[in-house]
Description:
By secondary structure, the chain is an alpha+beta fold. It has helices at 6-12, 21-35, 44-70, 82-96, 103-130, 156-164, 173-202, 212-242, 255-268, 333-349; strands at 247-251, 277-281, 284-292, 302-313, 318-327, 351-352.
Amino acid sequence: MTNIDFDACYAALQLNFGASLNDVQNAWRKLSRIHHPDQHTTNPRAHKQALEKQKQINNARDVLKKWFEQNPDVPPPRTSTSGFQSGAKSESTKNTSNPNNSSGHSTSSRGSSRQSQKGGSQSSTSNKYREKQTSSGTEGGNFADWFQSSELRLTPLQKLVRALSSDEKHGNGDQLALMQIGAIIGAIFAPMWMLVSLLRALFPETPSALPDGLQLLVLCASGYISSYLFRWFFAEAEILKLQEKPVYLSAADSTAAAIEQFKAILSKHKACCAEWKFYAAGETHEAVLEYEEQLAPELKPKRQLSIRFAAKAAVHGSVVAMQIKVASPINSFSCTSLTKSIISALKAQFKDMAA
């Protein structure tokens, strides 16, 4: 792998040199959502360009993945031989064009020529990675990095939910499995233990063996609490995942029409007694929905759902990108339900550009 142009690989994936394998995989997924040939089937020219671009990013991803599999946690070397090889090729051409060169010089030039051919081939590969970065993207350039997902501001409980719901297997896979098992056992038996403890604290004369009717009541109440905890956990995990990465949608209309359609869909999905507020800063738009969710007569936590979105002209129609952010101490069922209904309505109107 010493002759591979890793600089070109990172450039093809629009990454800074030395980015990790995880960054490489994420960049490849983003670009694949945009340049996959299936997204451009209606336009033969765009389809051909997408094939070339997809091949480039696939090759770049494969090269870097192979390096990191063989050299974990070690960044690849910078390419430093291309300039030398190009110079060797130039010197070789100069020597072979002069009929007065000695045999020694001729031999040297032949060696330099072979080396320059190898360097020329490598340079050609590099050019294939770098050329036409925006040929199959939008007219304004690639749109894979419109919204770089910012680090979510999570509460300690949300961080725990995120860790328990993670499906990534690293070196601590056994520890994660034990945590998940412990959480399941706790969600089942902790409510029962708490109810029995509360009952004995309120009624000290309660016998050690609860009556059958009281046992059934405690069992039903703890079962309801456990089911609520499981429902809340999966809703919380889902809304966290929806915030981790942007969503890309393709539209057949112009950018202005796509933005208006986007706003119209959002306006139809709102919380009770709350309206969307729209803001714009250049090409980027933001929609904010603030409301109170009544969980109990005296408990009305505030919820805030914000969506950043923008549209750019593509080879065929336009592309809309959106990113969701939910601001509340603990997210709720209403946030998850509202966000899912919005995404479902948007994907029904536009074409999902998932990889």
